[in-house]
Amino acid sequence: MPIPARPAALALTLVLTLAATGCGAEVSPDTREGAGAARTSDGHYPVTVENCGERRTFESAPRRVVTNDVGITEIMFALGLEDHMAGYVMPDDKGDLTGVPWKDGYRKTAWLSKGRINKELVLDARADLVFAGWNYGFSEGEGFTPDALRRVGVDSYLLSESCRNGQGKARGVMAPLDALYTDLRNLGKIFDVEDRADALVTSFREQVAEAQAKAPRGADRPRVFLYDSGEDKPLTSGAYAGPHDIITKAGGDHVMKDLEDSWTTVGWETVVARDPEVIVINDYGDTTAEQKRRFLESYPPLANVSAVRNGRIVVLDYVDLVESPRNPAAVGLLAEELRRPGS
Q: Where does the signal sequence lie (predicted)?
């Protein structure tokens, strides 16, 4: 996905039902005194999870986690794990963070930087684990990788949406919502909050199922294209980024479902040939959603594309569309838009 710099204000009202679940339960006491801490007396540890194809064993729950970007940070908050965090890194263009169900997490947790995450910041925070992802903070070009952290004694957990699939730097090894559920369950196990993780997954599945029950079906399903950014070539979602599941489960036919990658660029000629009936704008960064809309409506090659011709352009926020606990609600929001007359 875009190397995060990101959302403006929420473009659609976001209603989530998990505030109490995400923040209300108590976090299990952590007994770790350092990297070589002994097992806890309840026998939960050590635990082993599979993360992006690698089996990882934890002798105790990390105590000083640094997260990168809004979706990743809110996964931790949804699980009630702010007491296990040293802080988070994200730009300040996130909209009203006090209005989200996890506002207490933002209030309690240090905002370490509004710039890029890096090794020096992590070491200054005395982090024992970094929760980030490929192109969600981790980058060979920046020299910030799990291997680089391992060499200085810091562990890492990779966002499952960002897992590389073995084809160069292409990303994606599972359906997007499965990636969210996988991370919730893995982190539930790592931090000994499995009941809380299971409750979130159950609630999210119910939320998605409820939206699907009301979503367009069959011939009524409109063709949908996700527009992230870019004028020469659009950055969009393939089959392994959040928008694929959000579009599909909301009752849309994702026109880029054959792209075996997460976030990637395509040519405008491909978009024109697939003639989307609805375009979803990803709202984030320095270019506003309205500026993106004006570009789409004025770009000559798109003049005869159905979505542009009929004015069927929808806006969702960045955090709705990258892997985050807001994804299930985004399915409902988009399903409602696709059910509107003319949509």
A: 1-25
